[in-house]
Each structure stands twice: as structure tokens, then as C-alpha cells.
Sequence to fold (540 residues):
Amino acid sequence: MPESKYSFLIPTSNNGQINIPLTEGKALFVLGANGVGKSTLMHNLFQRNYSHAKRIQAHRQTWFSSNSMDMTSSTKVQTEQYMKQSDNQIQSRWKDDYSGQRSSISIFDLINSENIRARSIANAVDEKNIDLAKSFSNIQAPIQSINELLAIANIPIKIILGKDDKLFASKNDSPFYSIAELSDGERNALLICTDVLTTEPNQLIILDEPEKHLHRSIISPLLSSLFQKRKDCVFVISTHDVFLPIDHSESSILLLRNCQWNGSNIISWDADLILEADQIPNHVKRDILGAKRNILFVEGENESLDRQIYQLIFPDLTIIPQGNCSQVEKAVEGIRETENLHWINAYGLIDADDRTSVQINNLSDKGIIALNCYSVESLYYNLEVVKKIAKRYAEINGADENQLYTNAISGIIRNILPHKERLCSRLCEKWIRNNIMTALPKHKDIAKRNKFKYECDLGDIIQKEEALFDRLIQEDRLNDLICRYPIRETPVLTGIATGLGLTRENYESSVRKLIIDNADTKEYYRILLKPLADLINKDK
Fold:
């Protein structure tokens, strides 16, 4: 879709007309206090993109009287037409004539999408097209997606579609009860997830004040996961909460300070477009005072695998990806060394990169744990976890779990061997860069005016690494190979997933679901990450 499909032109009193870039797969936060014209601006945005926009309003009704489809398909289509016309009227900024119907339509869409998937699989099986049935089953079920989203957002409930097409919930494995009995926050999260996941492809999703009824520790990871699942859409989020754009540093921000009225109409805004969240002015950041949080900075990006798995393993932490290890170190050290941010406990999690024990201990003293692995894939594809996934799918499909596991791991050595030189040189590159940075002279050394010289035998370094690689192969130490090298650059991960009859995306989603469903799996990961867990417990 061309970028010009979405229009967001805003007249300002300080910057002329700003043409806000709206690109699929990206998010824009509209940040400002009450009374600065956010609602009017969101309404104008919806009007200009009427044919391909969905607006989830701030004054939405978050309760529903039924947990089933309480309208027919034809009634639903007609009601949606009326709602869209109503949303286009100026009074929709503060009034909603269809508040009850909106929640009913959300429930209808969720149940309907679940049934459509089930019918597609059943029809393919009836036609004896098993490959087609498998391809449909590999598409994550809507309710399964919602349960994963809720778990990542620290909401301990599961949704199921029960008898007579009714939706039920269970909290912390309690007996199932109607979703109408969920708390305000739980219902709000469910409705936001449902509305976003069931939106038509390539739409503009306008979300007003998603933090209503939801704690910031919930809405931030929830939004991250929704952005990831709907990369085909553009998100514009109106909020008062400065944490949301700070937590999503790859998003743009439209900062509203004031607006100018002409009669009953706003003619311009005092506004600035900020392309990176860390550029939010200090006077806005003051809003975070008093909001003590435990933050874990990890490597990777907002859409990477890191954030999703760590949020499930450590649900009490706010997970913020910071790119590479140097950025993680700077973020943690910056917060820990800044007295006016003393209400935030900051931790870091980085890859060990063959650091010495002295370097690892020094990092731990600074609140940063260095894991003995190359990347987060070593957690997802840890062979104990692969074995658990094999067992789960064997139970579902009536297969032999040992055979599934054997299929998954049988190609690891075959898939990794051709990449030996590149994998070893990549690992050596990180080790050499780390050592060079450590050896660089400090200002005290420079003041002494001595000569500085650094030398290393590259041939010897890579020869030793290749010898270790060969030894791991010979000893069949598959987990060590997965842990030590950048295996995502090889066919290894795809081979493991395919051996289980899954795509990589399905496998990784299954791992996250296993953490949600199985307390032993979460505990296994916490044992793997014991140095971090110990560091956090020490600060309690």
C-alpha cells in the first residue's frame, strides 16, 4: 500500500502545516494534557481516512451483558454502517449512541473469526486436502492470540470458546466463568485485543486513551504485541501517559501543548513532531515522578523476540529493548547514576560475548547480567524446550513425541556445518571488539603521554574458535552449539521447527504459550536466568 493512502495534515501555530507520516507497521503517539485538542484532532484524522480507518474511542463501553453472539449477521452489518456514520459526526467526540452495540460486535467478530478458521480446517479435511488443512491450522487461532497477548501483558486470564458459542474466562486456572464477569481492566484489554485483531487488513487504527482502566505495566506490553501482530496496519494512539511513547522508542510522537479556537472550531495546534521517544522534552518527562518501576533493558528491538519472552518470564518487570549491549549498559548506568530517577530500579540483560569472569562480575555490580549465549534464540530453541513442545504436539496430534523430537534435532549438525567459518568469525568479531574497547586508554592513561598499542593474532583467535566448534560437533553438544553461535543466520532454527511440523513463527508462539500454560517451563527459564533473578530478589 502506498504511504499516501493515509492522510494526517495538521495546521499548527508554531510549525506551519505538518504532514504527519503514517506508514504501515509503524505507530504514532499523540501525547498531551487534557484540553489541548486531542479528541478533536483524532476525530479529524478519522474523518480524513473514513473509508479505511477504525476508531476505538476513549469513552467506549467496557462491559457487555452477554458472552455470546446476541445479534444476527445482517443486524451486525447494518449496525456497523450506522456506527460508522455516527462516528463521522462531530458529536462523536463526546457522545456514543452505539456504546452497547460496539461491545456486542466485538464479541461477534471474535467468535465469528474463530468459527471461520475452524470451518476452513474442517472443509479442507473433508476434501482430503490435508496440506491445506495444516496450512490453515498453522495460522494462530484468534482466541489463542488473545490469550498470548493477555499473558504477555501480565493479565492472568485465559479465554475459551465453550458450548453454544459462548466465551468463558478462567483466572489463574480457576473454574471457567462468563467473560461478562471480568474486571473493568480485563474486559478493556480483551476488547482492545479483539478490536485490533479482527480489524480488516491495511487499516488505520485510531486508539484513544488505551490506558483507561489499565495499569501502565499492562498496556505497554499489550500495545507492543498488538503492533507486532498487525504490522499491516498503522496505529495512532492518543494518550496522557508519557510512559507509553517512552516504552515504544521506535514510534513517532506528536506532542500537543495547546490549541487555538475560532468560535466552536479549533483552527490550529501548538504542536511538535518528535521522531524518537527519547527526545521528549524534560518538562513532559516530569510526569513520570512517583511512578516507581522495575525496568529490564535487553538487547534487540521493540518487535524482536527478546521483549516477548522476557515479559512472560518476568511479568513484574517492564521490558525495554535497547538495541545492542552498549546501549543496554548506557541505559542502566544512566538511570542508576542519576539521583533524580532513584525511584526506578534498572537492570540489564546482555549476551556474554566471551567476556572474562572479571568483566562479568563488574557488569553484575552495575546491575547488568551477561548471559552465556549469543542471542535470545538460544532460549527459544533450548533443546529441553524443544522436547516439551514435541510432547505437547504429540499429545495434540496423536504422534510419537520421541520421533517428533528426533525429527526436530536430527538436522542441526547438517544445517550448521556449512556455516562454520562464518559463525566462528562472527563470534570472534564480538570478542575482539569487546577486548579492544576494554583496552582503550582512559583519560588518566592519556595524561601520562605513554604510547598505546594493541595487537592480536587474528589467525590464532579464529583457529582456537574453530577447534572448539569442531569439538562441540564431535561430542554432539547441540545445546552448546545453539547457545554459542548466531544460529539464526543458518537453517538450524527452521529445521527444528519444521521437524515438529511447524513454521518458525508457530514454534516461537508455541514456546510463549508453553510459558503461559506451564509453570514448570517458566521456572525452568528462571533457573536458566538465575543470575538475573537473584539480582532482582536482592533489591526487594
Summary: Residues 286-292 have pLDDT under 50 and may be disordered. The CA atoms of residues 121 and 133 lie 5 Å apart.
